[in-house]
Specification:
This protein is of the alpha/beta class and about 675 residues long. The chain has four domains: about 5-160 and about 225-390, TIM Barrel (Alpha-Beta Barrel), CATH 3.20.20.80; about 165-215, no CATH class; about 400-600, Rossmann fold, CATH 3.40.50; about 615-670, Immunoglobulin-like (Sandwich). It has 18 helices and 26 strands. Strand 19 (about 565-575) and strand 20 form a beta hairpin. The protein is globular, with a radius of gyration of 26 Å. The structure holds beta-D-galactopyranose (GAL). Beta-D-galactopyranose binds near residues 153, 309, 315, 347 and 360.
Length: about 675
C-alpha cells in the first residue's frame, strides 16, 4: 500500500531515519520492539547505504536490505526507502576522479565526508541511475515500501560545481535559453567592461574573478545550478515512476534553501517534505520554524506535507549545540502538525556509535531507553499521535499570503548593489515576524500562485520581476485585493537589467508613486518616521526618496534632506489598495502597521493572547475548526479563547480559559 493511498487515511506518520547498516543484526530486533513501543510506523532507510548496497561497482548486496524490509513489515513499520545516491562510495571517485566537485576557486572537494560528487558528472549519473533501477526492481512489490525518498537534501553541501564538465553543461544550458550569442550578449549586457562573447567556448562559470563578475552571468549560473539539482531529481524520479508508478516520490527539502528553486521542484514530487533544525538558543526559533512549515505547506499548495527530519534533543553541527528543553520537541512537532504536516519524523532513530554525527540527538539515545528523558518524550509523543489521525486531512486556515520568489532572491543578493545589507531573509522576516507574533497565519505564494485566494498579499521584496508577474499583481489589486510591498521591489527585469522610467517602473501605476533615488543608510545610522495619525518610529537600513503620484503618505521621514517626504504610502487602485513601505521600521512599529492594514482588509488575530502563545486553526473536511494553541514560553500561561468545546488531546472541556503548562499544547475543537 502506498503513502498516496495511506495519506488519504486518517493517520499521522511517526518515526525517523533508520541506519541499521551501522549496527549488528541482533540490534535490529531490539529496534523493532522499541519502534512498536514508541508508536513508530514509518522509517527512512538506506539514505547513506550506497557503499553497503554496492561495495564495488556492479556488485550488489541486497540481502541485508531484504531482511530489514521483511522485519519492518512484520512489525507494522513502513519504509520510506531511499535511493541511497546522496553519498557515493569511495570507488566512484577512485575510478572517476573527475566525478568530484570543484569550487569557484578551483579546489577539488574530496571524498571522506559525504556528497562528494559533481551534479553533472556522467560517471555519477550513470552509477546513481543503475542503483536506483536495481532498488526499484527489487522492492517494487514489497509491502513495506510506502514511499521513495530520493537522494538526500540535494545541494546541502555541494550545490554547484565549477569543473570543466560543469562549464560545458552551463554553455549547453545557455544555448538552450538564448539560442544565439547575440541574444546572450544582449541579456547579459556585455557591452559593459568589454565582455562581448564571440564563441560559446569563451563563456565560463563565474569562477573566481578579479572583481564583480557579470551579474546576469551570476544569475544564470544560479538558475543553471538549481536546474542541475532538479535534473538529478528528475533522473531518479523518471526511473521510479516507470518501475513503481504506484509508489509516491519525495526528496527532503530544507525550507528556505537558497540554491534550489523549490517552487519549480515541488510540483515534480508527490508529496513535499521538510528537514528543520531550529536552534533552541535563538529567541526567534519558533517563528523561523513556523515559517519553514508554512513554506513547505505552500510549496505543495496546501496539501498535507511530511516533517522528514528534526532532532529529538540537539544537533551536533553548530559550534554550541543547545538542547531542546523538556516539552519543546513535542511543542515543535505539534507546531508542524498545526501548520499542515501529517508526518513527524526525526534524524535519527538510534544515536550512532561512530562517525561525524555520533553526538546528534536520536530517538534511542546512547544511554538506552531506561530512565531516559528523551525516550520518554519521544515514545509518549508517538503514542499520542496515534490518536490524532483524523487531523491529518484537515487544512490550515489562512487569509493572507507572503510572496517569495527564488529568482528575485538570487538577484537581490548578487554583489554590486546599493546596499548588500538588504537581504531576502531579513526582508521576509520583517513581515513574517509580526504576522506570526499576532497569529495571523499566512501562506507563502509564488509568482505562479493564484493571489485571488487571499485578502492581502504581502510582497516583502521583489527586486526582480517579470512583466507577467507585475501585471498579475496589478490585476489582483485592481480586482479588490490588497498588496503591501516592501522597498527595492520592481527594480530589474529577468535579465537583471534596470526597468527604466522611475522606480519601481512596473508598479508605479498600482502604487501611485515614483521613487527618485534610493538613500541606503550607513551601519548604525537611523532616521525617524512621523505617522499621519500622530505616531512615530525609528527606521534604518534604507530610505526611498518618493514622489507621490496619486498615493497618500501614511508616514513621512523626519530627518535628512528628504525630511517631510513620504516613507510609507497608500493608494486606492481599482477596487483594491496598494501600500508601499520605503524603509525598515522598528519591529513594534512594523507590527502595529501590519495589524492596521490587516484590520482594514477584514483580517484580525484569532484571539488576544500573551506574547509567545501561538494559535493556528485547521479546518476539517466536515467544516469543524481545530484550534492549536502552543505555549512557547517556559512557564504556565492562561489564555482565553473565543470558543467552548473539547480539548482533543485530553478530552477535557474548554470553556474560554485554557491553562497551558511551559511548552504546553492544547488542541481545542469547538462544539
Ligand atoms: C540533515 C541530513 C541528515 C543529518 C542531519 C543532522 O541535514 O539530511 O542526514 O545529517 O542533517 O542534523
Amino acid at each position: 500500500m502506498s503513502v498516496r493511498t495511506l495519506l488519504e487515511q486518517p493517520r499521522i506518520w511517526y518515526g525517523g531515519d533508520y541506519n541499521p547498516e551501522q549496527w549488528p543484526e541482533e540490534v535490529w530486533h531490539e529496534d523493532m520492539r522499541l519502534m512498536q513501543q514508541a508508536g513508530v510506523n514509518l522509517v527512512s532507510i538506506g539514505i547513506f547505504a550506497w557503499s553497503h548496497l554496492e561495495p564495488q561497482p556492479g556488485q550488489v548486496e541486497f540481502g541485508w536490505l531484504d531482511r530489514l524490509m521483511d522485519l519492518l513489515y512484520a512489525h507494522g513499520v513502513h519504509a520510506a526507502l531511499s535511493t541511497a545516491t546522496a553519498s557515493p562510495p569511495p570507488w566512484l571517485a577512485h575510478r572517476h576522479p573527475d566525478s568530484l566537485p570543484v569550487t569557484a576557486d578551483g579546489v577539488t572537494l574530496w571524498p571522506g565526508g559525504r556528497q562528494a560528487y559533481c551534479p553533472h558528472s556522467p560517471a555519477y549519473r550513470q552509477a546513481a541511475s543503475a542503483l536506483v533501477m536495481r532498488l526499484a526492481e527489487r522492492y517494487r512489490a514489497h509491502p513495506a515500501l510506502a514511499l521513495w525518498h530520493i537522494n538526500n537534501e540535494y545541494g546541502c553541501h555541494v550545490s554547484e560545481c565549477f569543473c570543466d564538465v560543469s562549464a560545458a553543461a552551463f554553455r549547453q544550458w545557455l544555448s538552450e535559453r538564448y539560442g544565439t550569442l547575440d541574444e546572450l550578449n544582449q541579456a547579459w549586457g556585455t557591452a559593459f567592461w568589454s565582455q562581448r562573447y564571440g564563441l560559446w567556448e569563451e563563456i565560463n562559470p563565474p569562477r573566481r574573478a578579479p572583481t564583480f563578475a557579470n551579474p546576469t552571468q551570476q544569475l544564470d549560473w544560479r538558475r543553471f545550478s538549481s536546474d542541475s539539482l532538479i535534473a538529478l531529481g528528475d533522473m531518479e524520479t523518471a526511473i521510479l515512476r516507470r518501475i513503481t508508478p504506484h509508489v509516491p516520490v519525495t526528496t527532503n527539502f530544507m525550507g528556505f534553501f537558497k540554491p534550489a528553486d523549490y517552487r519549480k521542484w515541488a510540483h515534480r514530487e508527490d508529496i513535499v517534505s521538510l528537514d528543520t533544525y531550529p536552534d533552541p538558543a535563538d529567541p526567534f526559533a519558533a517563528a523561523q520554524n513556523a515559517a519553514q512549515c508554512d513554506l513547505t505547506r505552500s510549496l505543495g499548495d496546501g496539501k498535507p506535507w511530511m516533517l522528514m527530519e528534526q532532532t529529538s534533543s540537539a544537533v551536533n553541527w553548530r559550534s554550541r549545540n543547545v538542547l531542546k528543553q523538556p516539552g519543546q520537541m513535542r511543542l515543535w512537532s505539534m507546531q508542524a502538525l498545526a501548520r499542515g504536516a501529517n508526518t513527524i519524523l526525526f534524524f535519527q532513530w538510534r544515536a550512532a556509535k561512530a562517525g561525524a554525527e555520533k553526538f546528534h540527538g536520536a530517538l534511542v539515545p546512547h544511554v538506552g531507553t531506561q530512565e531516559s528523558r528523551v525516550w520518554r518524550e519521544v515514545s509518549a509523543l508517538g503514542n499520542e499521535l496515534q490518536e490524532l489521525g483524523p487531523l491529518a486531512q484537515s487544512r490550515v486556515q489562512v487569509d493572507t499570503a507572503l510572496l517569495v520568489d527564488w529568482q528575485s532572491w538570487w538577484a537581490l543578493e548578487l554583489d554590486s548593489k546599493p546596499s548588500t545589507a538588504v537581504t531576502f531573509y531579513d526582508r521576509l522576516a520583517s513581515f513574517y515576524g509580526p504576522l506570526y507574533a499576532t497569529n495571523m497565519t499566512s501562506d507563502f505564494v509564488f509568482t505562479d500562485s493564484d493571489f485571488a485566494n487571499y485578502k492581502i498579499v504581502f510582497v516583502p521584496n521583489l527586486y526582480l520581476v517579470d512583466d507577467a508577474t507585475a501585471a498579475r499583481l496589478e490585476a489582483y489589486v485592481a480586482g479588490g485585493g490588497t498588496v503591501v510591498m516592501g522597498f527595492f521591489s520592481g527594480i530589474v527585469d529577468e535579465n537583471e537589467q534596470i526597468r527604466l522610467g522611475g522606480y519601481p517602473a512596473p508598479f508605479r501605476r498600482m502604487l501611485g508613486i515614483r521613487i527618485e533615488e534610493f538613500a541606503p543608510m550607513a551601519e548604525g545610522e537611523h532616521n525617524a518616521l512621523r505617522f499621519a495619525d500622530g505616531g512615530s518610529s525609528v527606521c534604518d537600513l534604507w530610505a526611498d526618496v518618493i514622489d507621490l503620484e496619486g498615493a497618500s503618505a501614511l508616514a513621512t521621514f523626519t530627518g535628512n534632506f528628504y525630511a517631510g517626504r513620504a516613507a510609507i504610502t497608500e493608494h486606492a487602485f481599482g477596487r483594491g489598495r496598494a501600500i508601499y513601505i520605503g524603509t525598515r521600521l522598528a519591529p513594534e512599529a512594523m507590527a502595529a502597521l501590519l495589524v492596521r492594514i490587516c484590520a482594514a482588509a477584514g483580517v484580525r488575530p484569532p484571539a488576544n493572547v500573551p506574547a509567545g502563545v501561538e494559535i493556528v486553526r485547521r479546518q476539517t473536511e466536515d467544516g469543524r475548526i481545530l484550534w492549536f494553541v502552543l505555549n512557547h514560553r517556559p512557564e504556565l500561561v492562561t489564555v482565553t479563547l473565543p470558543l467552548a468545546g473539547t480539548d482533543v488531546l485530553t478530552g477535557a472541556a474548554v470553556a474560554g480559559a485554557v491553562a497551558l503548562e511551559a511548552y504546553g499544547v492544547s488542541i481545542a475543537q469547538a462544539g
